[in-house]
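Quick one: NUDIX hydrolase domain-like protein from Rhypophila decipiens, C-alpha cells please.
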Amino acid sequence: MNTSAQELDHDPETSAAPVNVVFDPPAILTAGASAAAAITEEDFLLPLSISPPVPDSRFQVPPLERTILDQQLDTFPDASYYWDASTMAPLNATSAAAIARLRAYKPPPFPLWDKLPVSRRAAVLMLLYADKKGDLRVVITMRAASLRSFSGHAALPGGKADHPDETPYQIARREAWEEIGLPMDDSKIPPPFAIEPLCYLPYSLARTELVVRPCIALLHSNAASPSASSSSSSSNLSVSTGASSSVSPATPNEPTVEEALIPRLDAKEVAAVFSAPFHNFLKRTDEILPGSNNRQAPPPEGEWYTGNWTEWNNHPWRLHFFYVHVTEQHVSKPPAVEAVDRLSSLEEDKTEQGQTEAQAAVGNGSDELEIDQHPGRYKVWGMTARMLVDAARIAYDEEPEFEHNRHFGDEEMIEELEKMGRLTPKKRKRDDKM
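--- reply ---
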C-alpha cells in the first residue's frame, strides 16, 4: 500500500487480502515488570474469519535479478539486512539493554483512541534488527515519486485501521505486509526469523489529523537470538503466533529470506526499502563505527541532522531532519526502478527534457526521492523522524544532542482537537492518495 507514517490515508478497497493474524493488547501491551502477569492466548485473539493468502508473483525473484542482487550485496560486505540472517549478529550489550528498556516501557493510558472514528485511527511499525556488530538498525521505506502527496518521502510502514476491532499492532503488521512483504501471520515468518512485539509509544498526530500509534518490534534471527521465545517470555508482552516459537535453520529447498520477506514492490507506491542506525537518531552528526574488518568507511558528503522549531495547532513542535547515508548498503527497489537506475547509469544521450520514456513512466527511478543536496543520502523528517527520536530516547535512556520536545507523542494536542470537533470521520476516496 501507499500509506506511511507521513501520510497514513489507507483505502481498504485497494489493500491486499489479509491472512490469519494474532493481535496484541492495546492497553497492557507494554506493562512494566510490576504488571507482568499470567496472560493467556485468548486475551490477544480476535475472532475474525480471514481468508488464506493467494500466492503473489511479486515475491518470486527471477534468476537474473537474483544474480544482480547477489552482486550488489557482495559490493557492501559490512552491510546488514533484515532479510539476510547471515548479515546479523547477536545483540551487543548496549543493544540488549535498549531492547530490555523497550520491553519494559508502558505508555500512559489514552482512552480517547477507542472513541475515535475508525477513519482517524492509524498505526506504524518500527521494525528493529541487529546488524553484524550487534547494533540496532530500523527499517524505513521511501514512497514512490509518482504519488500524489508525500512523494519520495521516507516513512515507516503503516496506515489506517480497516475496522473498529483492529488493534494498533494489527494495523501496523497488516500494512507492513502490504508495503514490504513482512508476513502478517507469525507462522508465515520464514526460518530462521521471529518477530517480537516490544511496546507501543504514545500517540502521534499526522499532518492529515490522523491519530497514529507507533508499534515497536524486534526481528530476531537464529544468529541474533538462538530462541526468540526465550526473549519473548521474559518480556511483559505475550503474543501467540499460532505457530511453534522454535527457530530452525532454512533448508536449501526453501525460498531465500529475501524472496520471502521483500515483495516485488509496486513502483507506483514504494520506491525503496533501506535501513538506518537506530542510535544515530540521538546524534547531531554521523556515528562512524568500525566495520566488520575494523575499517571505517566515511559517510558521503553532507550533514546528518538539522532541525527547527515550528508552531502546530498552537503548540511548539520540533521539526527534525535526518539525512541517512545509503552508500554502504543495498537499497531494495521495485524491478522497474532498478531497471531505470541501471538504464540511467548507462545512457549518455537524454531527451531535451532530460529524461527517458522509461524514467517518465516510473517517476525517474530514485532521482526524485527526498535526498540531501549531496547524493547518497535519504531525508527522514516530520512525524517519522519525531517517532524515531522518541523511540531512541526510551531505548537508550539518553537525551538527544539537539533540541527536542520533552514529551513523547502529541496526545495533549490530539485531545484538544477532539474537543474542538476536528476529529470527525474522514471521507475515504478510492483513488485519493493524499
